[in-house]
Amino acid sequence: MLSEKKAPWWSYIWDYGPGRSFEEVKFIQKLDIGLLTILSLGYFIKNLDQTNISNAYVSGMKEALKMNSNQLNLIDIAWTTGYVIGQLPSQFILTKVRPSIWIPSCELVWTILTFCLAAATSANQVIAIRFFVGLVESIFYPAAHVLIGSWYKPSELGKRACIFHASAAAAGMFSGYLQAAVYKGLNGHLGKAGWQWLFIMDGVISTPICLAGFFLIPDLPENTRAFYLNEEDSALARKRMDDVGRAPRKKLGWSILRRVFTRWHVYALTVLYIIFINTGPSSSVSPMALWLKATGWPVTQINIIPTGQSAVQLVTTVTFAMLSDFLRNRPAVMSISTFFGFLSALLLAIWTIPSGLHWFAYFISKAAVPYGPLSMSWANEICGADAEERAVVLGVMNASGYAVNAWLPLLTYPVTQAPRFKKGFVFSTIAFVAQFGITGLVAWLHRREKGKKVSIEEGI
């Protein structure tokens, strides 16, 4: 009897399918180069735009536009309001307009609006522009996860979702270095301040990525016309999804709502995502940057030092993704991510701790972020047998999370309480405990559902 061939060392890190054909291996490589790359770049520019608001605020925008502390919160509320309003309509539009047209078109609009931020002369103008930026950016995250879930198998999904999400951390790092360089090299050039040049550079970087999206986004397996996929690739893609029980997507109609809202999926997964999105402050409020500003650090260092947080997010996102795909256990790895968030929040809630521990708490806080893309991958799998439900649930999860995020951070992390945020850090500690609980509940419900399905199939 022949012994089974030993798996190579890299199988613990990346995909390993000994039964895969050469054609399937090449097909997945094409997907990674085309779909994963363009989605990651799109998420990069989206998060670059979001992070740049925070960097611009601490780099002169506050003083130039005579902004009071709560106006930064209002900018967040405006963006989040637009983001929530645009979510579900976008999911319906995606059933009538190709993703390769709809997504890049919206990216182009938010790029133009980013240029407009450089010309803002008042806080109210920034608030209004950010509302419309949120409206067009709302389409991207749930649409991207629907696309990723429509092309990749469960053993491939977690890594791709988290690599996609890791581009947000790369954006956070890049924004800090970009603002530091712009502030030093372009501040005052052509009569524009460093914070204005930041938005201009943001738009310059975003434009070619938007245009590339029209060619690189492959739509769905059943209607792709991507230049890098042939007919055999399309047939293979449809077969792969059929093999894992992931149904092809159809046009959404009102009848889907009854099917979605009579299952536990949408309720439990939405609560899970609401808790995740609201475990910390809003995206434009950086407790570490505000702490550095309050303690007298120079502007360049305020922009550069927090990039270490993004580095932690980048490393943990990729590491947890690989671990979750290898173990085939999303909730276990999500709970590890939750633990780091809980520890960080607890230390900052105590506040009177040694200086080194204080820095440690700020940096490990970003290890809680990988929970988000892993939860989206999990939702893709839980709802995999019903493509219409999958599209709606992902949209409802994201929209609901940010609907609460539109107002809750104003209560939990008001900028007037910076840098200590006593109320906010205590809230975050409790929220992470709740996140442990809802993760366990969803895991139990999913296990019970699969058990019932097996019993039915076996005629028990």
Describe the structure.
With 460 residues, this protein is an all-alpha fold. It has a single domain, classed as Up-down Bundle (Growth Hormone, Chain: A). 74% of the residues lie in helices and 0% in strands. It has helices spanning 22-64, 69-93, 99-117, 123-137, 140-151, 154-185, 194-216, 231-243, 255-261, 265-277, 287-294, 299-304, 307-327, 330-350, 355-364, 371-382, 387-405, 408-412, 422-457. The chain is globular. It holds the Pfam family MFS_1. Its main location: membrane. It is a multi-pass membrane protein. It is found in: Cell membrane.
Q: Brief overview, please?
A:
With 460 residues, this protein is mainly alpha-helical. The longest helix has 43 residues, at 22-64.
Entry keywords:
460 residues, mainly alpha, Growth Hormone, Chain: A, globular
Topology as H/E string?
Answer: HHHHHHHHHHHHHHHHHHH
Question: Largest sheet, described in full?
Answer: none
Instruction: Say what oligomer this is.
Output: single chain
Backbone CA Rg: 22 Å
Q: What structural class do you assign from the helix and strand content?
A: mainly alpha
CATH class category label: Mainly Alpha
Low-confidence stretches: none
CATH homologous superfamily annotation: MFS general substrate transporter like domains
